[in-house]
Amino acid sequence: YYLIQTAPEPHRRAFLKPFLRLDSAEFCASCHKVHLDVPVNQYRWVRGFNEYDNWQASGISGEGARSFYYPEKSSTCVDCHMPLVRSRDAGNHAGFVHSHRFPAANTAVAYVNHDEKQLQAEEDFLKEGPPGPGGALSVDIFAASPEEAQPGQPQMRRRAGEVPIAASTFAVGEEAEGAAGPVLLREVGRVAAPLDRAAPALQPGDTVKVDVVVRTRKVGHFFPGGTVDAFDVWVELKGEDETGRVVFWSGQVKDSGRGPVEPGAHFYRSYQLDEHGHMINKRNAWQTRSVLYVRLIPPGAADVAHYRVRIPRDAKGAIRLTAKLNYRKFSYYYTQFAYAGRPGTGEVTPAFDDRPFLFRASDVPANVSGEIKGRIPELPIVTLASAETVLRVGARGAATEWQPAVRREDRVRWNDWGIGLLLQGDLKGAEYAFQKVTEADPGYADGWLNAARAYIQEGETDAAKPYLAKALAINPRLARAHYFQALVEKADGDYDAALRSLQFAEQQYPRDRVVLNQIARILFLERRYREALAVLDRVCRVDPEDVAMHYTRMLCHRGLGELEAAGREEKLFRRFKADEASEAITERARMASPEDNNERQPIHEHDSVRLAKEAPNKALRSAAAQEAGGPDAVLAANAAAGGALRPAAAQGASEARTARARREQFDPPPATDGAGGGDR
Q1: What is the SS3 string spanning 116-143?
Q2: What is the pLDDT of residues 400-443, one digit of tens each?
Q3: Helix, strand and coil percent figures for the chain, each rounded to 5
Q4: pLDDT band with cut points at 50, 70 and 90 for residue 49
Q5: Planar angle of CA 397, 403, 408, nearest 5 degrees
Q6: pTM for this structure?
Q7: Upstream peptide bond of 224 is cis (omega within 30 degrees of 0)
Q8: What is the Cα–Cα distance from 670 to 331, expressed in whole angstroms?
Q9: Residue 434 φ/ψ, nearest 5 degrees
């Protein structure tokens, strides 16, 4: 310490390398962009969690050309997670140093260590994000529409494009083209939005569809980030009449907020599966063989949760809806497992784990880390953002007026709703929302551009042209408009015009991988293979694992007759591309849990849990009780089966019954007083 104080320069040169300042995000990526490979999983290359790519391709970094929103100033990992704080440390600059608390999302470690200051820093960061106005995320109960059939207006699903997709357990955003899944084409019908403006008077006994929009505002990467197979992050929507009676509740937490989240909630997570279709819920990522679904929100984007709310016939007054975005660092199951998990009998291999696990307070090790001993902690649930609105209930028999309320000050709210619908593949819904953006503020270029994006994704490039023209007339230098203009020109076969548009975007954003990949693809189509390879070299410098880049390189080398180089690129392409056959593994999980199968769909609706006055079906209640019969029941059943896993068909039927029971009356939580409980 004395030497450092006396001569700090050698210490600075030894530890503060230039790349730590010049390439700080890339340095962070060495731990925050991960993959698993054969030596670890005895399977193949699979992308794990990845904060870097979606940051790099976004407006937050200032390197992405196609984001929905851009902050006034770009930022890096250090700007958010190491903010400047006042300090008298000898290394301060003008009385400030970068905080080394690294606030992010880990409330669990601070909680179990009884570190109140760190816990407060984590909670504040989760809610408020880095310094600046507003919160890190927002919630908006935005729209309602009647439950109604529309004869002669069928819904149609359409497959996504044929762009190569990387093998990943994480979401894929603006860093890759073709990240969107299948799309839905449907007529929008009647809508009242924003709900607090339109204020429709609903009828007792009506069922309405309510949309809740969740938006990332000051989050520089996907939300949530990190080990997204281990969190509890979900939307909660609760409805109460004027007497306080609960009439709707999705996202309820058992045991007064201390137990598991009800399985039909709208979750943000990566639901991974092992080879036998069991959920990866013990941080056993090496056993991941497939993904049931991944739902994360890109930076500067939105998601929409859809709910089916029934207005009781005996509702007393208006219905107050409260929506919350809730966060628990570790899922309820994983916390039980980490502290007290004891395996029963069952087969376990590098590819799957068939063992049931028991959770008893008596199995918590005496030397467990942290200040909480002899029990399983109840990790805190943090509400990151919330919103309220009122559903008016009119006189019985009076007609409900379903009308949108379009005002300039609500432009962003309409835009956020449209973004969420677009990312889910509800293209007609997105087009409707973006049309309202243009009505609210005709001078907002992105309203016109976003409508064009929806038309382009639908394949209606001619319909997109006037919207692109309007956006470019408002802002001729809007790089993202030039990118989508290029897609239309490419579809028309005008490759020269498409290249000019792409190069305009590339001049402003020279590290946008999708722009560069599109340029290379057009050069390939024009048989300008060497030029295409030179552009692809630039993609490789941003991400050497870019699957689209390797695919086009393979084609270019084949075009040049360079078969050895083409073979190398083909091997890399096959290494990084998704394993489509692994989708078959999801069948068992989809059959076993209607809730998880529902959540897997890009567009889906959520119902209320069964509320207290409605007693659950006796048979289903019995099924839940049998599953939660404690360790003796679990082990006895396993012994009766000879210590082997039950046949898949019988087990699937049992799990399906249990899933239904869980939806109506949750499994009793694993006991913390020694009584015990069990689950896989």
Answers
A1: HHHHHHHHHHHHHCCCCCCCCEEEEEEE
A2: 999 999 999 999 999 999 999 999 999 999 999 999 999 999 99
A3: 40, 20, 40
A4: very high
A5: 150
A6: 0.88
A7: yes
A8: 13
A9: -70, -30
